[in-house]
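Bug report (template v2)

What were you trying to do?
Predict the complex of my protein with iron/sulfur cluster.

What happened?
Run completed; filing so the output is reviewed.

Input:
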Amino acid sequence: MGKVTGFLEFDRREMDYRPVKERLGDYKQVVQIASKELIETQASRCMDCGIPFCNDGCPLGNVIPDWNDLTYRGKWKDASARLHSTNNFPEFTGTVCPAPCEAACVLGINAPAVTIKNIELSIAFRGWEEGFIEPVMPTQQTGKKVAVVGSGPAGMAAAQQLCRAGYEVTLFEKNQKAGGLMRYGIPDFKCEKELVDRRVQQMIEEGVTFKTGVAVGVDFSVEDLKRDFDAVLLACGSEKPRDLPVEGRNLDGIHFAMDFLPQQNKRVSGEAFEEKELLATGKKVVVIGGGDTGSDCIGTSLRQGATSVTSLELMPAAPEGYTEQNRHASTPWPGWPKMPRSSSSHKEGGTIEYQVMTTRFEGEGGKVKRLYVKRVEFGAPDHLGRPSMKEVAGSGFVIEADLVLLAMGFVHPVHEGLVSDMKLVLDARGNVQANTNQFETSQPGVFAAGDVRRGQSLVVWALWEGREAARAIDIYLMGDKATLQSRDSYI
Ligand SMILES: Cc1cc2nc3c(=O)[nH]c(=O)nc-3n(C[C@H](O)[C@H](O)[C@H](O)COP(=O)(O)OP(=O)(O)OC[C@H]3O[C@@H](n4cnc5c(N)ncnc54)[C@H](O)[C@@H]3O)c2cc1C
Ligand code: SF4
């Protein structure tokens, strides 16, 4: 344990964010890395409580009390090694993870939780700055080849694990650059792309071959894939967006969020794109959907100079007044608490309308001009536990809009092409079917990990899936000689 009385002496202090006025003028990361001293003090608040629920709350099983203690003692290099034993890319999670670990922190029962996510980010940040993070070269070669399709966090984590275990790994990516949604979905103000670039470089130095600009199933056939590799891992994400098929949907100016966000990320990095340019500049923007994607659309629209940004959310606002210490009865500790949450983008401007449903779009000259919306209310759950929803009579109103961004999530992976060419069995939700032990699909030697398997989720889950699927492939190809470990063996 770090400082025995740390949690009694020091209050929780999170990293600061750059002032709103300043950050709206650029796309640089909004969070500011705190000083070494502040982070060491914050790490000393960890009680090393004996049964660290944070460790279980983290999908990766990050060994949080260990690296909190090492950080408090100033042993940053050791903290970095311990953190990397369970997480290939802690700066990814340190910037974008919702931190379920903090919701499960034992200190959080009666005091503000340890700032675990900030400490994780600092360890990774210092690791790069001080040169602790280096390529890890394989110590043996298996003589076997693995193809990974998709270079999001799941594919990158799996490829790095397999390469370090001695496989010849080729990572195929249809986009021009690697990183998946870390590169093209999540804006730079949440995670600057240099963080992805240096990990790609690290992997290249370790021996992973990146083939970008290659869509498997189009530029590289499924037959070639099966012939040239001993195993294939599909990590191609959940890219089919949820649509809103109401009257007027085909008007100009109504776009999926993922037609809008990648363009800005490409602009920031100087990457050219062929699609028609979409900009919020001088427009009344309406974002439909309130998750991470919706909030990224808000932050991006505000930076582009939208005249107004209105966000529409179907679900009710979380009840006011609830915090990690004062939890809603339905979400007791150590689960994820129901409480009002706002992203950095929500604090930058715009308005949010809760419990509204869009019933139709109306336009002029083929271009969207307004949305007709109604309030909804939720009643008792049905026999499947789903809350019943009904329109509130007479609650309709109109919202003016020149640009509508649909950010209502993703239904499942794209089936056309790779998934159907491989004749893969799908689960009830349309994701590629594979369990979380073998990760093998209905096709022998073909595995699946990340959003393509579990459906749209989080970066931290994608990393876990990539690591565990790599282990499953190692066992499939090497049997008793497999060297990769599962999450539980590190803890
Ligand atoms: C806008 C947005 C914001 C988000 N914000 C957050 C956040 O703040 N925090 C968080 O935890 N999660 C966030 N998420 C979710 C998170 O990004 C995903 O859960 C995660 O990236 C999934 O990782 P993945 O590797 O499974 O798939 P992806 O990251 O989707 O990567 C899949 C890759 O496969 C490639 N691919 C697909 N088909 C082929 C093919 N045939 N050939 C070659 N390549 C192919 C794709 O081009 C893509 O690069 C966000 C998602 C979006 C859309
Ligand atoms: S990956 Fe997420 S859940 Fe795990 S320690 Fe980091 S912030 Fe917490």
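What did the reviewer find?
Residues 289 and 401 are 15 Å apart (CA to CA). The pocket of iron/sulfur cluster (ligand 2) is lined by residues 58, 60, 62, 64, 93, 97, 99-101, 116-117, 120, 460 (CB under 6 Å).
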